[in-house]
């Protein structure tokens, strides 16, 4: 199953940011046990490259491991060298997108305006991260569907269990979930069972959605 098919099936990319490096493996295991199949560690997380390497060794074939907050082509090269299977950015940067495409790595760049979304798509993105969705809201994604329904959109920022179905009905292809899913206070306290159960709730909610 390729990147887009798998993303369409599972619908969730878990965004791990600022996690203590010594707790990253246990947290990832809890998320996997909860049903998460896409894990993104942001490049501004201390030890991000080491985490990517370890996660690839630990979860190879079970979880898609990616790098987030990939701001430029240099970050992209570092993440890919560490073993990232996909890249997520907060911005639309042509060099970064084309570097990933040339390396055969899936990339979901961040965009806000219709112009940025179309540019990201033309540069070779397989999907576009509509960010910040919490500010823009599901109605923004719904309005984009008129002219841009051919571009898969990943709603990121502000998506929760309570509004996931609204974003899906508005046209979101999948969701990038950070703090609403990956609770750092639970991880720091070693409450991995709680994290697992929380992830399972999101996975169940996502599977109940009918996303075209």
Automatic annotation (TrEMBL):
<dbReference type="InterPro" id="IPR013785">
    <property type="entry name" value="Aldolase_TIM"/>
</dbReference>
<dbReference type="InterPro" id="IPR000887">
    <property type="entry name" value="Aldlse_KDPG_KHG"/>
</dbReference>
<comment type="subunit">
    <text>Homotrimer.</text>
</comment>
<comment type="pathway">
    <text>Carbohydrate acid metabolism.</text>
</comment>
<dbReference type="Pfam" id="PF01081">
    <property type="entry name" value="Aldolase"/>
</dbReference>
<keyword id="KW-0119">Carbohydrate metabolism</keyword>
<protein>
    <submittedName>
        <fullName>2-dehydro-3-deoxyphosphogluconate aldolase</fullName>
    </submittedName>
</protein>
<comment type="similarity">
    <text>Belongs to the KHG/KDPG aldolase family.</text>
</comment>
<keyword id="KW-0456">Lyase</keyword>
<dbReference type="GO" id="GO:0016829">
    <property type="term" value="F:lyase activity"/>
</dbReference>
